[in-house]
Amino acid sequence: MSSSSVPIIVLAHGSRHPRADGAISLIADATSALSGGDVYAAHLDFSPVTLTNVVQLLAAKGHREAVVVPLLFTKAFHARHDVPEALQEAHEATGVHLHLADGLGSGEDMAQVVARANRTVARGAERLVLYSVGSSMPEANRAVADLTRRVGEILQLPDAVAVHATGKGEGTGPQAALDAAGENGVIVPLFVAPGTLWDAVVEHVSLYGGPRLGGPLVTALAPLVLKRAGGADFRGECFGEETGL
């Protein structure tokens, strides 16, 4: 089977936000428009559109394999545990071979995507704040800090800091992001789709004013999703008979 005929599944963490599922579907549609192939949306949590349900649909259509692209920025808990478990469960339920692609990551290509999506809103700002969910794994947070510096370089904003929405201690949460940005900064969310954590920042600024705000990446991610899916054909982990899983 050629890689162009293998369907792609974009696998999101999932969110209680009412617009989150629709945003992930938009990413799938945008990726499909670029590839000319079938692309489906699935979620790890908070949605009835689970990976197993989507793969069951593919099996009913006669597909025997698919590529899964996790919409995750770091190799933290979800990437290391939840995603492989979801693929294993879906394979066992359907027999469909699932090729696990790399996640979105925090490398140079992601920095270019974030910078390009926020170039207009960041123009003239004095400071960049990259606002991410945060992780209990220090290496994941360091990866986001490196990404923040690179995005700042591309946007010619050397004063760039990462702030996390969750975590212990000072320097986390929406108020920390607002304080870090000040009146002349810009806060850019490292979010795939709308989420309640980002809404807290947006609502504060809408009520009281404050720095400029970017927005979730959504369809700006489509070229990167397609790139990751292509890489899975050669080096992605496969859940199925080929690896004895």
Automatic annotation (TrEMBL):
Sorted alphabetically, the keyword list is: Lyase, Metal-binding
Q: Which Pfam families match?
A: CbiX
Q: Which molecular function term from Gene Ontology is one that the record holds?
A: metal ion binding
Question: What's the Enzyme Commission number for this chain?
Answer: 4.99.1.4
Uppermost EC category: lyase
Does the keyword Metal-binding belong to this entry? yes
Q: Which PANTHER family match?
A: FERROCHELATASE CHE1, SIROHYDROCHLORIN FERROCHELATASE, CHLOROPLASTIC
**Name of this protein:** Sirohydrochlorin ferrochelatase
Q: Which organism is it from?
A: Corynebacterium urogenitale
The gene name on file is sirB
